[in-house]
Amino acid sequence: MQATHLYEVRPRKDHRGVDLISDVLPFGALWYAEPNAVSNAINYAKFRSRSHDAVIRVYDSASNVIETHEQAGEFKEP
After folding, report:
1. Radius of gyration of the chain (CA)
2. pLDDT for 11-37, tens place per residue?
3. Backbone conformation region of residue 53, classed left if phi is above 0, alpha if psi is from -120 to 50, else beta
4. Is the N or the C terminus of the chain less surrounded, counting Cβ atoms within 10 Å?
5. How far apart are alpha carbons 78 and 57 in whole angstroms?
6. Residues 6 or more apart from 61 whose CB is under 8 A from it?
């Protein structure tokens, strides 16, 4: 059984886009700038986890979860 990949999309403190954060990313975090920063971060997380189950949580500036996306991995071993 494979572990579920967990991702967080959080607004940057400098208000210049969002950070995609996960321990499964090679550098720990990626920065996305406007426009479409949140949707680009979500799409990247889904692409990166296409062979794993994934949970992507989007946070607002007060650290409240405002969206949750769950993805079932598309490529499973028999």
Report:
1. 13
2. 999 989 999 999 998 888 889 998 899
3. beta
4. C
5. 29
6. 11
- Supply the pLDDT for residue 3: 84
Query: What is the spatial distance between Cα 26 and Cα 47, in angstroms, rounded to a whole number?
Result: 14
Among candidate residues 36, 41, 49, the one with its CA nearest the CA of residue 20: 41
Question: CA 56, CA 41: separation in Å to the nearest integer?
Answer: 10
Q: Which helix (H) or strand (E) holds 44?
A: helix 37-48
- CA–CA separation, 72 and 55 (whole Å): 9
CA distance 74 to 57: 20
